[in-house]
Design goal:
Layout lengths: L7 E4 L3 E4 L10 H14 L2 E4 L2 E5 L3 E11 L2 E14 L6
Antiparallel strand pairs: 1-2, 3-4, 5-6
């Protein structure tokens, strides 16, 4: 892992992006769980007096679900879930 962290970029359209952030398209729940577990294995964890396995980095796992009406393909419903683990937030 890069000790400087990920770099935040801004463009003229007022859109922020994160350098080296990856997006994956999944078709099954198992693919989502595999990526979630991959992220858990790569998360930085350390210990301190209150907790032996404290999160030492912020983590965001985003899931975007698109539902397309087969009778009306232009009719798309989009939902987004974000699971957030803030470093040191176990209090």
């Amino acid at each position: 892992m890069d000790p400087t962290g990920l770099k935040l970029k801004w463009n003229p359209f007022d859109v922020y992006t994160v350098e080296n952030l990856f997006n994956f398209q999944c078709k099954t729940e198992n693919e989502i769980l595999r990526l979630f577990n991959f992220g858990l294995r790569n998360k930085v964890i350390g210990s301190h007096k209150m907790n032996l396995t404290s999160s030492r980095s912020h983590t965001i796992f985003s899931i975007t679900i698109e539902q397309i009406n087969v009778e009306h393909p232009d009719n798309v419903l989009v939902s987004k879930f974000q699971l957030v683990d803030l470093a040191g937030s176990e209090r």
